[in-house]
Amino acid sequence: MKISRRVIPAAALVAVAALAVPALTACSSKSGSGSGDAKGGGKLAVTASFYPLEFLAERIGGSYVQVTDLTKPGVEPHDLELAPKQIAALSKADVIISLHGLQPAVDDAVAQSGVEHTVDAAKLTTLEDHGTEVDGRHHTTGDNGSGGESEEDAGSDPHIWLDPVRYAEVAKGVGKALQAADPAHAAAYGKNTDTLVAQLGALDTAFRDGLKNRSTDTFVTTHAAFGYLAERYGLVEEAINGIDPESEPSAARMKALHDLAGRDHVTTIFFETLVSDRTAKTVAGDLHLRTDVLDPIEGITGKSRGKDYFAVQRSNLAALQQALGVRK
Fold it and tell me: Which of 18, 98, 123, 270 is at 20 to 30 A from 159, Cα to Cα?
């Protein structure tokens, strides 16, 4: 069933407007990096394991870095396998940025690379366990949650970038790593980090203000990627699948979803852009609900509702406002 899209509250529009600033600047480029041994054609050669880390490297590094993303657009990061050529090329990077636990193939390759400056985003903020429960009440609130995740669904949730506050913590760590690898341009990296952190602060405000006056706290997704975002803004994520977006829901889980849809005034089943929407449409059809996109921003493709992290997050906010019945 379709419902009209709500208008974003004025306070949220003000905060979101702050995000639409030009790309972060760096000081005028010089040939060669301050480290004197950059392997990126005169720039600091940075390898990122997937889009959210590529985005940070490009925004913070500006014109002084050459960024390579190991995960091509349209590839589901969880499923990434590296070719021998990619593994060999890792050793030529000045800086490697990855998120341990998300992509096992990358974890192994980084460990064998011998690169001095490596950044594990998982160590730059706190990770929590998010998953699904078979009784239908999964709360994504970390230590305060209701617990009870199955062994196959529970685990350290890697989707930290969907929480602007945690993502800002990762950004600060990436900025420090670039400064250590390229001291001559440390001031530019520091300035760009500060600007990016401020933008993420504005995004946090936009979500916080934009999700006030909602009719329900509960949203349903096909992939348990939004636990940190839910926790940050007092929401309850009910995931059809667990952390693995390709896993199939159990019969017990399907029954629980049917029960909670009416109880928690669920209007929408969310799916994402990099995996099939078949499950979402099947569940939505059974429950007579609508479907919409809530993007975990694991990659940017032609199907993404925005050209970069901030644009897609603004689209996510609008989708949540409609699904949660946000009133003006």
Answer: 18
